[in-house]
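Standup notes, protein team

Yesterday: finished cleaning the Anaerococcus octavius set.
Today: Lipoprotein structure.
Blockers: none.

Input for Lipoprotein:
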Amino acid sequence: MKKKFFLILSLGLLLTSCDFQARDEFEKQLAADEKKVDKDFKMPDISYEKAGEESSTNNDNKTDEKLDLTNLYGSGKAGTNLNPADAVGNIIDTSIGESQIGISLRPSSQVAGAYSTILSYKRNNELTEREFGPIAGINGLNTVVTFDKVSSDSGPMLLVSQVTINNGETYSAYYIFNKFMSLMDYLVFRTSTNDTTPTVERLDDIVEYTDQAIPGDLNKAIKNRMEAEDRYLPSLLDVYGINYKSVKSLYENKEMDIGYLPDITGKDRILLTKTTTSTDNMGMNIDMEK
């Protein structure tokens, strides 16, 4: 009999994508988590921050020095059906409140040969990068990542959303940052054809998980994940007046619902990046829409 339990675990997952982690790897991490000692993953002058690590009350994020994003990443290219290798570089240079942010296309630090979007900003005068993806460079991949401005009583906020299907694994994630680029809240959902029951993570806590795997087809895995999204997303988005809608995409030569994304358009949609849908070489090219 399936038993659902609610755990309070500190996973120490990197927000650099939270991105795409296979279900079996994730479950091994759950089993080993209590024995782990969290460590920061840092390169010189760059901070890769963990979920829940930063204080939402530390709102002094002013910096006198503007980021030179083109110098850091090169000049990227927006468009449709792009070879990602030809589009690498900075795509967006904008601000959320008083915080300058950049969105760039870069080779993934997590998956060899893949490409992801990199969210960059300064925090405590240190360059911070968060990876969302992968979006292209893997056969059988289908990812959509959106970056949206959101209004709140305390000022503008940033909402980053991602939906991914990758060869039997399905994943979605939603992150809210305030105007000082402090992470305020997030939700992550995972299912797979090996286990169609959803795992749900919120602010480093596993809030839904089952101890009995139930295999099924991809449609079932996606359906169960979307049902979990329906249960939890209102608690994240309703306070900001954000609606969400189902997104359809081509996968394995069939159009199907792949997940929910914010129903945001116009000037509040900063950037939409997605895997180019194609009957040939699905997963290899990318669309970048400002």
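Follow-up from PR in the comments: The chain has one domain: 4-289.
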